[in-house]
Every structure is written in structure tokens, then in C-alpha cells.
Design goal:
The protein has 928 residues and is α+β, with helices and mostly antiparallel strands. It has five domains: 2-259, no CATH class; 263-313, no CATH class; 315-466, no CATH class; 561-662, Phosphorylase Kinase, domain 1; 669-925, Transferase(Phosphotransferase), domain 1, CATH 1.10.510. 24% of the residues lie in helices and 25% in strands. The protein contains 18 helices and 51 strands. The strands form 16 sheets. Strands 5, 6, 7, 8, 10, 11, 14, 16 and 17 form a nine-stranded antiparallel beta sheet that branches. Strands 1, 2, 9, 12, 13 and 15 form a six-stranded antiparallel beta sheet that branches. Strands 22-23-24-25-27-26 form a six-stranded antiparallel beta sheet, with no helix packed on it. Keywords: ATP-binding, Disulfide bond, EGF-like domain, Glycoprotein, Kinase, Membrane, Nucleotide-binding, Serine/threonine-protein kinase, Signal, Transferase, Transmembrane, Transmembrane helix.
Length: 928
């Protein structure tokens, strides 16, 4: 639903959207008033099937008992043809097409009347939210705004502090616009656009009138705003001058809405709910963590995953895929049918496995598992998780418990499987039977097993064979055993004989007594000798372990282990034993060393749960520095962020404490930028922008969003790690300091790395958030120039890169030190914006620098422009200084603030060839 508020001057009540969301959810629940369990096609036979030319299928519907909560639609029959809209009273979101998977193609448009007599700065607010909180606008959609003399800000209505984008539109005289803008993509003249990089459930547009003289013809023009999936809108003067959206041009633009079932947060919890929506299909956790999505497992299945029976997902099981030439082993692991390594050798796609380096692997979402054993008899899969980056779902037909998965053929019961489709029924062997598979109280499907007295594979013809119970251990009979088909008989021995369980036959009673006496004597003798030896060995082992335990406990107490346990008790961090880490690193073998951090040596290790980790062995042995180690563990245990290295735990049972981090595979940003020229990889402009933005996001989080503000104090390219997807992660918190929220700075012993060290901090000893900003500015210069923070000048003396860069800016000779790859990839405007951001970060006075939050938003807007240029080859002819959003501590209103003006002046002491000694002298002018 959408609403346009009355004009106000740069002030917005953000809680208004939240209030509408609550009302919409309550209304949807009240209207339905029935169970939301998956219906059958017969249950929906009375429900309308279409509106105009648009088909309607569950979970969407019109009228009671025809839709799932949050998916009500309305058919407006007053138009010709009738039109289908989301919700019960929303006329903004028209449904153009609905797909069987639940995705919707919709038209979302707004017409905003602008008052020509309104004062400059007047703000018009528009809010939109999906009815029932169950639909998301897909990422890579484009918000297009047609109008004159306006600035447009787009916010995530569920997170008022999250600005999705900004654009501005101006209008020249009519002749110039017809010549320069007519028939072209939006470039800021007559229209502008905002590219959405993430999915959105609700948004708010703030349209601000600028103080601008407009041509008479467009002075009272209505502002039009609409969403489209492809960046394909071509500007038209007719659209600008019209009173509302022109359906022949703008009205043809549509976007896609993704359905999400929000009554449970994920598939695991939803399966335990009676209203579980995917009872006849597979389940997928939504990427945003707000719910789950149903889908049919088969790639070519166009059934409806939200209903059961006819019209729903087909089972797609192929019992004929058991070919003779299929490979049935991988390493030491057997692969029985219905599993296989190729599509023609497995019953369905979900049973297809992968054999890599003699390891049997299966993929569930983006999580990969190693299959250790497949049990057809018990319907179990033994797995080890080899890689995991989040809490992801399992397939509906697999139920995980402590590395053991129950698996089923399909999401149906035995009765339905036998009666619905005989050709896809899996239990094809003679002497086999069907059994239902459950997880708790939830049925997840059916599987097959051989009947009692038989064993083998029930999924292949004649796969179940008779068990010879007479050869089993332990022996089943106390008498003579006779096997028969599917069973066995026990027969007593003749008189005067006794049954020998070793020989498994009847023998003379006297012979049996002599054998028993000899066996008992030998057994007692060997038992005494074995008991004596084992007692001696066990005592020596106990004594050695006891001494080692005393040593480890001594180190544990000396390293303040009890204090650390209290600090991280409520966190997810673990205190490892020394034995665990020695196994992980092969007793800290030198071949496992992968690097040397600012505060220790780093080893690569593999834990018992197959997680690959980095283990940092601290260089410190001085008892006075133990507090710094405790500081690093306490800080990292509180941090949960995708761009901050994840701490798994620590070990305190050694003289030198150990830290256990996640292993980051692609090294550091320093190595990527300054590595060997012969192996140096290309680093595109977009990659540099993304890495800078991710690092800035992490530092902004540490400064303002973490539970306790944290100043890193050693920000440098060597402390920015890159994982396998080249995502940046900030690391090495050995020098970090946390402060209380009401403090602005702390007095510390100066620590850091020359070339990155804040000059104000160096002279005053006062550490604040602007100290990290200066260091980050040096990293921006490294990204621009691909030069080291300390380099050699023309005289062979050490020179500070930041001073050299600032001097080049002043002399307007920056291009001489830029990386040629940047000059090739980026345009001059983008380079100038990045350079100006680096310049303001490198101000000598901390109060003149921006905060990391401001730096993050500036980079976010700049990268948005670059991404939009790459996607649509748009040419922005008019550039407007962006506004950044900040939160007020005194009330819940949002307000706009402008970045400080970037000064272009450089101190007179800066020279192109600056030695380290001269640099320290130049810093002496800063007041302490």
C-alpha cells in the first residue's frame, strides 16, 4: 500500500510507515480467519481463477479461504478490462502477471502534484509497503522519477537510517531539453533514477523542491515515480508535461515481487508448524532471514509448490535410471541407487552426488557436505560439513541431526505414493515395503525397505535377498539352526549331546566338559597377566597426563583464563584446549605458517569439525601485555559483522596465548596491491570501490554500531583480508581500544604503523574515531595509486605517500602517480570524487575529517553511480553533491546533514619529496 503525505519542510515522521505495516498485517489475518496449511486443488475450486487477463493461483486469492495470509488480491471490475491489485485497498500496485512459483510481475506508479508556489525546500513524502509483509521488490530494480527542479532520496522504510539512493533532476529551456534529453536515458535533465542493489519490502521517497527557476511550461508539472526491472525507460517530453502516468510508455514499466512466507523465520522452524506451506514441495530460507519460500525440486516442474495433489509439484522419480555401467563407488564410499554420480544414474536430481578427489560430496543450497556413508536399509546419510557461510536450509526431503541425515524419496506418504503414480513408485523390488519418514511430528516423505528376513536394495528390481540367519553373529539359536526363505527354525540336539556355539553343531557332552575346563584355565592365566600390564601402563599414562594438566592450568590462570571466561560467557566464542590446536596444526609445524601479523605468527589449521581456521600465536611473553591479549578476545567476541574477521575462540593453556580465527584464503589487500609484479592480478575500478566500501562499512560499525564503540588504532592495507570471493574483512585487533558511549577520546601509548599513523594522535596521544579515518584515507590513496604507504623518493630517501599525494593534488599533477588501470577503467569525475574523499580524510586536524559513517555513505553513493554506469552505460551530465542522513540522539526524527566542504588547500610544509624526518617535524605544529 502507498500514501502521499502533506508537504512538510525537510521533516518526516518515519514511524508512519511502521504503523501502516502493523495495520496491514492485522487486517490480512483477520480477513482470512482460517488455517494456512497447504490446500488441494479441490479446496480452491470455488475461488476466482483470473481477473482480466491475469491468472490467479494460490497462495494469492480473492475472498475468504482462497488465499494465504498476506497474499490477498482485489479485482477492480470498474475498469475495462478489469485490473488485479495487491491487498484489499491498494490501487498503487497492479499485478500484470503471476507465475506458478509465486513470483509476481507488478506495476508500481505514483503521481505527485507539486505546488509551484511552495517555498524552496518543501518536502513531499511517499511511502509504499507490501500488503501483509509477504512480498519483496526484487534487487536490481530501478526507481525512475520524472519531474523538474527536485532532489529525491529513497529510504528503506523498515530501517529508517538506511538510505537506498539519491538522484536529482533539473529542467532547462524547452528547446534545449528536446535536443539534449528527448529520446535518451535518464541523465538528470527532466528525469533521474535510483538503482536498487538489495531487495526491499517497504520504501519511502522524499522529494524536495529546489530553489530553481523553471520554464513556464513545466512549472506546475506533476512528478511521476515508478519502478521497472530493466533500466530501459527513455525520456519523453510528453511524459514530463502529462498530469499522470502515461500507460502507453511509463505504464509499461514493471518490476518483480518475490513471495516470502513470514509466519516462521526459516525452514527448520516452519517444518514443525501445522501451517507449514511447503508440505508438498521443497523449502528455501529467504536470503534476508525474514521467512522462507516454497519451490518444486525438479528444474522443469511448473507445478504450484503451495498446493498438494494435482496441480502441485510432480515427484519426478525415475526408477529406471539404475544403469549397468554406472560408477557405484567414490574412494572408499559405496553409492547405492537411488543415489548416483550422473543424471542417468540417479533417480532424481536431489540424489545426484559429486566425486571429487576420492571424496563423495553433496550440495544443499550453497553449503557443501562430504558424504561418509549411505545406508539404504535405515534411510540415513552420514555427512561432514565441509563449508558453511551462514545458517542455510536443508532440502525438505532431508532431515539433519548431528551429522546424520534422514532422507526420503519425495514429500508424500506411502498411501499417496502407491495410489497416485505407479510408474514413479520407488519400492520396486520383490519382498520390499514402504515406510513413512518423520522428523519429530512432521512427515517429510516416504522411503523403502526390505521386508523382515530380507536385506539388500529395495529400490532396484530383485534387490531384496533372503538373510541366512544361521550364519549371523551372535548366533540366534541355542540349538541347531535351519534357514528358510525369509525366516529360520531352531531344532534341539539329540539326547546325550549338547550344542556347541563355537562349532555350531551338536557334540558329545563329555567332550564339551573337558573343553570348558581347559578354556577357563587359559582364560584366567592370560587375564592376570593382561591386568598387571594394563594397570602399569595406565598408571604411567595417568601420571604423565596429570603433570601436563597441572602445567596447562598454571598457564590458564596466569593468562587470566577465569577473567576471559567471564567476559565471553554469553558470547559465541570458545576456549579451545591445547590438544585440539596441536591436532589442527600438526603440532604447529613450520609448514603451516601462513603469515606474521602485527602481534604474532599465524598458522593454518583444520579443526575436528573440518573447519579451516587461522591460529595466531602471540609474540608477547611479558606478563604486562596479557591485558592486551584479553582486550583483543573481549573485543572480537562482541563483534558480529560480515566485513570483520570472525573469532572462533582462544587457548590459554600455553605460555603464549593463542587466538583462533576463521581462515581467510586470499591474503591481504597489501599483498594484492603491492605483490610481485610478475604475479600481480588486475584490480578493476569497481573492485577497488567495493573493497574500500566494505572496509569503511566495517570501521563505521566498530565506531558507532557495535555494542561498545571500538577504535582499531592500526588500520592499514595489511590488516584488510580478502576471502575466496574477495570480500574485505578487517582484522588484527591487538591494538584496538573500546570506550564507553559517553567518551569522545582516550589517552593511550601511541601505537600504529608509520605511513598510516594519524599525526594528531602521534603528537597528543589522544585516540579518537578520526584517527582511524586518517589511516583509512591512506588506504584510499593506495587503491588509487597502487603505491606503498612509505616509498622511496628520487633521492633514495623514505617518503610518506599521503604527503606526496596531497602535494600532487595541489599541483594538479595527480594523474602522474595514479595506477594506469584506474585511468583505463574510471572516468575523471569518479577519480576526482575518490581523490577528494581521500584528501578530506587526510586532514591534519581531526575535527576537519569526516566520520567513518560519512565516509561509508560517500563511498556507497559513489559506487552506486559506478555500478549504474556499468549496467546501463548512463552518462550523468549534471552532478549534485549528495546529502547524508544522520540519526539524532535526542529524538526519533531523521534529518539531513551535508558533508563538510572539502578544502583544496594544502599546508605549505608539504613537498613532493618528503622524508620521514621532515614529516615528523611538520606534525609538530599540531596543538597537543
Amino acid at each position: 500500500m502507498a500514501r502521499v503525505s502533506s508537504p512538510s519542510v525537510r521533516a518526516t515522521k518515519w514511524w508512519f510507515s511502521f504503523e501502516l505495516a502493523c495495520l496491514a498485517l492485522a487486517a490480512a489475518t483477520a480477513v482470512l480467519g482460517v488455517s494456512a496449511a497447504p490446500p488441494s486443488a479441490a479446496d480452491l475450486v470455488r475461488c476466482p481463477k483470473s481477473c482480466g487477463g491475469v491468472n490467479i493461483s494460490y497462495p494469492y486469492g480473492i475472498g475468504p479461504r482462497c488465499f494465504r495470509p498476506g497474499f490477498e488480491v482485489t479485482c477492480n471490475r470498474s475498469t475495462r478490462p478489469p485490473k488485479l491489485f495487491l491487498g484489499s485497498n491498494d490501487t498503487t500496485t497492479e499485478i500484470i502477471q503471476q507465475y506458478p512459483s509465486g513470483f509476481v510481475e507488478a506495476s508500481i506508479v505514483f503521481n505527485i502534484a507539486i505546488r509551484s508556489d511552495a517555498a524552496p525546500g518543501t518536502t513531499y513524502n511517499i511511502s509504499w509497503e507490501a500488503p501483509g509483509r509477504s512480498l519483496y521488490i526484487e534487487e536490481e530494480s530501478n526507481m525512475v522519477i520524472v519531474g523538474c527542479g527536485i532532489e529525491v532520496y529513497m529510504f528503506d522504510a523498515t530501517d529508517p537510517g538506511n538510505m537506498l539512493g539519491f538522484c536529482a533532476s533539473t529542467c532547462d529551456d524547452m528547446a534545449a531539453m528536446e535536443k539534449g534529453a528527448e529520446g535518451r536515458d535518464c541523465s538528470g535533465m527532466g528525469c533521474c533514477s535510483i538503482w536498487l542493489e538489495t531487495s526491499v519490502r517497504a520504501f519511502r521517497l522524499s522529494i524536495i523542491q529546489k530553489e530553481e527557476a523553471l520554464p513556464t511550461a513545466v512549472a506546475n508539472a506533476t512528478v511521476k515515480a515508478f519502478l521497472n526491472t530493466e533500466d530501459s525507460y527513455v525520456f519523453s517530453m510528453a511524459d514530463l508535461l502529462s498530469d499522470k502516468v502515461n500507460e502507453s510508455t511509463i505504464g509499461a514499466s514493471t518490476t518483480y515481487l518475490r513471495p516470502v512466507i513470514t509466519d516462521q523465520p526459516n525452514c527448520r522452524k516452519a517444518k514443525k508448524d501445522k501451517q507449514y506451506a511447503c508440505a508438498a514441495s521443497s523449502c528455501w530460507d529467504d536470503d534476508d532471514g525474514s521467512g522462507y519460500i516454497c519451490f518444486c525440486t525438479s528444474q522443469h516442474d511448473d507445478g504450484n509448490p503451495y498446493i498438494v495433489g494435482p496441480g502441485g509439484c510432480s515427484q519426478g522419480y525415475e526408477p529406471s535410471h539404475d544403469k549397468l555401467n554406472c560408477s557405484r563407488t567414490c574412494g572408499n564410499t559405496s553409492i547405492p541407487f537411488p543415489f548416483g554420480l550422473e543424471p542417468e544414474c540417479s533417480a532424481t536430481a536431489k540424489f545426484q552426488l559429486n566425486c571429487t578427489s576420492n571424496q563423495l560430496l553433496t550440495q544443499r543450497s550453497s553449503v557443501q557436505y562430504q558424504v561418509v556413508n549411505i545406508s539404504v536399509e535405515e534411510g540415513l546419510l552420514s555427512v561432514n560439513r565441509t563449508y558453511d557461510n551462514s545458517d542455510l536450509m536443508e532440502d525438505t526431503d532431508f532431515s539433519e541431526l548431528y551429522g546424520i541425515w534422514k532422507w526420503a524419496i519425495s514429500n508424500t506418504t506411502c498411501d499417496l505414493a502407491k495410489n497416485q503414480n505407479h510408474t514413479s513408485y520407488a519400492c520396486i523390488s520383490a519382498n520390499s515395503e514402504c515406510t513413512n519418514v518423520t522428523h519429530g511430528h512432521v512427515n517429510i516423505g516416504y522411503r523403502c525397505k526390505c521386508s523382515q528376513g530380507y536385506e539388500g536394495n529395495p529400490y532396484i528390481r530383485n534387490g531384496c535377498n533372503d538373510i541366512n540367519e544361521c550364519l549371523m553373529i551372535p548366533y540366534l539359536c541355542t540349538e541347531t539352526c535351519y534357514n528358510r526363505e525369509g525366516s529360520y527354525n531352531c531344532t534341539s540336539c539329540p539326547q546325550g549331546t549338547s550344542f556347541d556355539p563355537v562349532e555350531r553343531q551338536c557334540i558329545s557332552s563329555k567332550h564339551l566338559s573337558l573343553v570348558f575346563v581347559v578354556a577357563i584355565g587359559l582364560g584366567c592365566g592370560f587375564g592376570v597377566v593382561a591386568l598387571t600390564l594394563s594397570t602399569t601402563i595406565l598408571f604411567q599414562q595417568w601420571r604423565r597426563r596429570y603433570i601436563q594438566k597441572i602445567i596447562r592450568m598454571t598457564y590458564f590462570k596466569r593468562n587470566k583464563g577465569i577473567l576471559l571466561e567471564q567476559l565471553i560467557r554469553a558470547q559465541r566464542t570458545k576456549i579451545f584446549t591445547l590438544q585440539e590446536l596441536e591436532r589442527a596444526t600438526n603440532s604447529f609445524d613450520s609448514t603451516r605458517i601462513v603469515g606474521h601479523g602485527g602481534h604474532g605468527t599465524v598458522y593454518k589449521g583444520i579443526l575436528s569439525d573440518q573447519r579451516v581456521v587461522a591460529i595466531k600465536k602471540s609474540k608477547i611473553v611479558d606478563q604486562s601485555e596479557i591485558d592486551q591479549f584479553i582486550n583483543e578476545v573481549a573485543i572480537l567476541s562482541k563483534i558480529v559483522h560480515r566485513n570483520v574477521v570472525n573469532l572462533f575462540g582462544c587457548c590459554l593453556e600455553t605460555e603464549v596465548p593463542l587466538l583462533v580465527y576463521e581462515f581467510i584464503s586470499n591474503g591481504t589487500l597489501y599483498e594484492l596491491l603491492h605483490g610481485d609484479l610478475s604475479t600481480r592480478c588486475l584490480l578493476t575500478w569497481d573492485d577497488r570501490m567495493r573493497i574500500a566500501l566494505e572496509a569503511a562499512t566495517a570501521l563505521a560499525y566498530l565506531h558507532s554500531a557495535a555494542s561498545i564503540p571500538i577504535f582499531h588504532r592500526d588500520v592499514k592495507s595489511a590488516n584488510i583480508l580478502l576471502n575466496e570471493s574477495f570480500t574485505a574483512k578487517v582484522s588484527d585487533f591487538g591494538a584496538s581500544r573500546s570506550i564507553s558511549i559517553d567518551e569522545t577520546h582516550v589517552i593511550t601509548i601511541v601505537q600504529g604503523t608509520f605511513g598510516y599513523l594519524d599525526p594528531e594522535y602521534y603528537h597528543t596521544g589522544q585516540l579518537n574515531e578520526k584517527s582511524d579515518v586518517y589511516s583509512f584515507g591512506v588506504i584510499l590513496v593506495e587503491l588509487l595509486t597502487r603505491r606503498k604507504a612509505i616509498l622511496l623518493d628520487c633521492f633514495g630517501e623514505k617518503q610518506n605517500l599521503s604527503h606526496c599525494f596531497l602535494q600532487r593534488l595541489q599541483d594538479k599533477t595527480t594523474a602522474e602517480i595514479l595506477d594506469p588501470q584506474i585511468i583505463e577503467d574510471a572516468n575523471q569525475r569518479e577519480i576526482d570524487e575518490m581523490a577528494s574523499l581521500a584528501e578530506i580524510c587526510l586532514k591534519l586536524q581531526g575535527e576537519e575529517r569526516p566520520t567513518m559513517r560519512e565516509v561509508e555513505l560517500r563511498l556507497q553513493l559513489l559506487r552506486g553511480k559506478v555500478t549504474k554506469k556499468n549496467r546501463g552505460d548512463l552518462h550523468m551530465n549534471n552532478e549534485t553533491e549528495p546529502l547524508l542522513l544522520s540519526k539524532s540522539n535526542s529524538n526519533s526524527r531523521t534529518q539531513y546533514i551535508e558533508l563538510r566542504a572539502i578544502s583544496t588547500s594544502i599546508t605549505h610544509e608539504a613537498t613532493r619529496c618528503y622524508t620521514m624526518e621532515k614529516e615528523l617535524v611538520s606534525w609538530s605544529d599540531i596543538p597537543r
